[in-house]
């Protein structure tokens, strides 16, 4: 196997024997083969679109789901990938038929016919991975992989919007264009840089779609205090990013005496009016994703993983963790959707059987719910505070958390940020500091939690609105972006920020292994992208 798509890539280079994330060589091979087939789908899909024909929604849905399944920490179940591969072939053949006669050369990925068995598939997988073409120019490889990884991230966002009924053909059609382009040997480094930035723009649209899907279904998030301590009684912990799963579970557990806790990226759910109205949505449990094995160990409740990030379940909670949707782990119970509905009875029964915590803990709460609607609702006060010098600077300290050392930088940065600065945060990296006390500036809390990584759109919208209010370029705002990345959703968000012209972003804890030195230089030259150094030095440079 060879995989270097996430920040945990072994030795900062790539996983070769087994994934640091827990991905087996078998799953890695099947994912490579699935991506190979998706490129073939891209080839025919792009031809169909160029002929002015349309592609049906089921095909779009398959493409976004299948590519999402290959994102880090989502699906580790080989059997599910065998199914995806078979389905991908069927879809490719349908698009081929729709495309009719093609005069240009047909790439191998578009001609490929997968065998019937997993064992045979694994033999083919060896020929199609990231490093299959040893002679490929390293910058071309780097930019092609950047495009594919960012597409995985966009697949996740498109999936979340789709299940809430929001879909857009600019977004859907771009999947085929991007997948087809990585098969095109005529594309130069410049062409591929442009395509990556185009993906950033399309992803902005996708995130806007997701924002309207979430706020349309559940209302705009409002400032909300969330309990972070245990309550007596049976419980279910819900992790991942899927608000629809949470909503369905809340409905199905109403009046059953079960408390629902959010975990990791589900924390922002407490701020949505249509979710917070359920009194049994009781609180948030634990820290970021990489602490789950310790925090779920022997827990007397049930767990539902709606999306990434799942880690290998320990024996002590294997019988009480459930996956749904795109998430998978071999031999872990999976809840399927049937006719648009999910039946969570097995989780509910498990939670009741386990009985839950025996005592209440002393209560502690944190404040969340600062999406664009809330923040821009007090824009006049914020602008006034900036003009009068009460607010000197804004820091967006956002992105993913992870297991590797070097992430204390973000905690230190937040702690050392002067008292006249405001910290905006989003995604799971915030667990490094979101239980600390930062105080207020006037009535405004110094720490504003914007939401999930899926809510990066909200942060961008706030920045654009402030730039308009101050009649300045977004790069002239007293705002610095201090980002942490782990997986591929962060990659597409980064491309979105660059495509909007944002400069001087600091990125850590380390730079992606798939970015070649020349590609990095392009990002440095054009966007002044910088690796993080140490909190004190970076703060001094920004504020100096
Ligand atoms: Fe975190 Fe995992 Fe939201 Fe990521 S839970 S690391 S960017 O998958 O999705 O922030
Ligand atoms: Fe390694 Fe990350 Fe790939 Fe997992 S996803 S195999 S940790 S590079």
Judging from the principal axes of the Cα atoms, what is the shape? globular
Q: Spans of 5+ residues with little confidence (pLDDT < 50)?
A: none
> For the CA atoms, what is the radius of gyration?
23 Å
Question: Which structural class best describes the helix and strand composition?
Answer: alpha/beta
Largest sheet: 6 strands, parallel
Which ligands are bound?
Answer: iron/sulfur/oxygen hybrid cluster, iron/sulfur cluster
Distance between the termini: 46 Å
Question: Please, how many helices?
Answer: 19
Record field, number of beta strands: 18
Using the 3D structure, state the CATH architecture of the largest domain: Up-down Bundle
Strands of the biggest beta sheet: in what spatial order? 4-3-2-5-6-7
Tell me roughly what share of residues is in helical segments: 40-55%
Number of domains: 3
Q: What share of the residues does DSSP label as strand, in percent?
A: 5-15%
Give me the CATH fold name of the largest domain: Substrate Binding Domain Of Dnak, Chain:A, Domain 2
* Chain-averaged pLDDT: 97
CATH first level of the largest domain = Mainly Alpha
């Amino acid at each position: 196997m060879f995989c270097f798509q996430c920040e945990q890539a072994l030795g900062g280079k790539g996983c070769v024997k087994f994934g640091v994330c827990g991905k087996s060589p078998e799953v890695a091979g099947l994912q490579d083969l699935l991506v190979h087939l998706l490129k073939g789908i891209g080839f025919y899909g792009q031809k169909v679109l160029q002929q002015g024909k349309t592609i049906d929604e089921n095909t779009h849905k398959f493409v976004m789901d299948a590519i999402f399944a290959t994102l880090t920490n989502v699906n580790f179940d080989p059997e599910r990938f065998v199914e995806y591969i078979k389905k991908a072939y069927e879809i490719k053949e349908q698009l081929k038929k729709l495309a009719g006669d093609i005069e240009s050369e047909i790439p191998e990925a578009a001609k490929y016919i997968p065998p019937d068995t997993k064992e045979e598939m694994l033999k083919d997988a060896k020929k199609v991975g990231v490093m299959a073409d040893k002679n490929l120019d390293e910058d071309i490889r780097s930019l092609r992989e950047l495009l594919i990884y960012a597409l995985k991230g966009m697949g996740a966002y498109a999936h979340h919007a789709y299940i809430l009924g929001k879909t857009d053909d600019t977004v859907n059609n771009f999947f085929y264009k991007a997948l087809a382009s990585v098969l095109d040997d005529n594309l130069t480094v410049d062409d591929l840089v442009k395509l990556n930035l185009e993906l950033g723009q399309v992803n902005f649209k996708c995130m806007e779609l997701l924002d309207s899907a979430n706020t349309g279904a559940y209302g705009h998030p409002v400032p909300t205090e969330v309990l972070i301590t245990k309550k007596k009684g049976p419980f279910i912990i819900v992790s991942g990013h899927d608000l629809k799963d949470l909503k369905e579970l809340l409905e199905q557990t109403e009046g059953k005496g079960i408390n629902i806790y959010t975990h990791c990226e589900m924390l922002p759910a407490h701020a949505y009016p249509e979710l917070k109205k359920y009194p049994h949505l009781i609180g948030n449990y634990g820290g970021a994703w990489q602490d789950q094995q310790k925090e779920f160990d022997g827990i007397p409740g049930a767990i539902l993983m709606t999306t990434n990030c799942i880690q290998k379940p320990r024996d002590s909670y294997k019988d009480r963790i459930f996956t749904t949707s795109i998430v998978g782990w071999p031999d872990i119970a999976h809840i399927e959707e049937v006719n648009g509905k999910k039946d969570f009875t097995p989780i509910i029964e498990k939670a009741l059987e386990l009985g839950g915590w025996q005592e209440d803990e002393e209560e502690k709460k944190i404040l969340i719910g600062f999406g664009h609607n809330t923040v821009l609702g007090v824009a006049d006060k914020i602008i006034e505070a900036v003009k009068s010098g009460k607010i000197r600077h804004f820091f967006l300290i956002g992105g993913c958390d992870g297991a590797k050392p070097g992430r204390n930088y973000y905690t230190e940065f937040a702690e050392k940020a002067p008292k006249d600065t405001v910290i905006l945060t989003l995604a799971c990296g915030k667990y490094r500091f979101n239980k600390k006390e930062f105080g207020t500036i006037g009535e405004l809390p110094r720490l504003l939690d914007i939401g999930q990584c899926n809510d990066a759109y909200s942060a961008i919208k706030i920045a654009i609105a402030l730039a308009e209010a101050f009649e300045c370029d977004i790069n002239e705002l007293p705002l610095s972006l201090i980002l942490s990345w782990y997986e591929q959703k962060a990659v597409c968000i980064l491309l979105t920020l660059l495509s909007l012209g944002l400069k001087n972003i600091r990125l850590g804890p380390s730079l992606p292994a798939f970015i070649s030195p020349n590609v990095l230089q392009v990002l440095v030259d054009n966007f002044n992208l910088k690796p993080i150094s140490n909190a004190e030095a970076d703060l001094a440079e920004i504020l100096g």
